Amino acid sequence: MMYDAIIVGARVAGSPLAMLLARKGYRVLLLDQATFPSDTISTHHIHQPGVARLRRWGLLEKVRASNCPPTTEMRFDVGPFALVGTPPPFEGQAEAYAPRRRVLDAILVDAAVEAGAELRAGFAVTELTHSGGAVTGVRGRDRNGSNVTERARIVVGADGARSAVADSVQAPSYLDRGMLTCNYYSYWSGVRLDGVELYAREGHLIVADKTNDGLVMVTVVWPKAEFGRVRSNIEFEFMRVLDEHAPALAERLRAGRREERFAGSGFLPNLFRKPYGAGWALVGDAGYVKDPVTAQGITNSFSHAEMLAEALDEGFSGRREMTEALASYELKRNEEVLSMFEHTCQLASLAPPPPEMGRLFEALRDDEAEIGRFLGTVTGVVPVQQFFSPENIGRIINAAALMPAA
Ligand SMILES: Cc1cc2nc3c(=O)[nH]c(=O)nc-3n(C[C@H](O)[C@H](O)[C@H](O)COP(=O)(O)OP(=O)(O)OC[C@H]3O[C@@H](n4cnc5c(N)ncnc54)[C@H](O)[C@@H]3O)c2cc1C
Hints:
Bound molecules: flavin-adenine dinucleotide
Number of domains: 3
Oligomer: single chain
Shape: globular
Largest sheet: 8 strands, mixed
């Protein structure tokens, strides 16, 4: 049996791609060594552009029904004060969500199966098969331990940042900025949170967010070089950062109850990979991975799954030559994320803000509309290059200087 596409990895990149291709009538095999529902190392914030895609695909109601609360308010604490506001909507979508990955990924896997994709969970791909220089399929072990070979017109690596598919085809990487941060997170009950809280500090970022079942998830970020030290005494180091930089949040957490162990990662690369070649393509973290400080990964995975589904449809249907369609997918992907990638790497340096940024924050303080637009750069709705252009920063600072003193 020859599939149109074999997709390796069934989480936030692979399952939407499988769903979209199956909805177009293609024969899709979706493989993952994991079984579902299951967690993975990742926090959960989905910005408005990602939520808008869930809505477009008909899946937002399922996320809502999972007892996952929406958030609209964001509190960006810069130290001496906080910028509190509401980021602008995207395609009419004003609310963000942060569902547990075991909830979200299961909804996506089910949607792929419902659309007609064949799922084999517990299936570990061990190698790719080739013919005449092109990838022709995969070999792997199914959940019973049997060795299996499957063939397809294209094999897609949606297998995450450590992509074995990318390694196997030696996909060239570029704009590799190395690893900048590490983080730990956990979940508390009995903690009140009105919206997302972000605390930007030199050497740290702290994020608090609401997730399923009344739990609050809190993440602390350190420079990558501190991972070994932090890992040896996680709770102590975690609370030490909160006590120093967000004492009121620390107090709220102590009044609540930590419900789970800490999880986190010191493997957070920042790089792009060429996402296609003869018989193969990459999507999600396999093709473009960045530090989670800006929480773009899930939203990007959704968007790039849509782009790749469109390109593969063009290629399969003969509307366009496949290589040309996939080259255009790479261009569109990069165009969408390049300035946010630079911004993410800048934030992930955890460096103190340059002086003009301090002046900008001061100027934003009492301007609700501009705070909203600033928060829109965090959610990816307002283009960062536009908002942080010298002209726009100058305009905001000058306008604030003309305001009568309160
Ligand atoms: C600590 C942390 C916090 C984060 N927080 C956020 C956040 O708040 N918001 C956000 O948008 N993004 C966040 N991200 C980023 C986000 O998690 C990723 O961008 C996203 O998970 C990428 O999805 P993916 O489907 O490409 O890969 P993954 O989620 O990594 O899934 C890859 C899948 O491939 C499977 N696989 C791998 N190899 C094989 C194989 N050989 N055979 C079969 N299956 C295989 C794996 O089992 C896995 O299920 C965070 C990341 C980290 C590490």
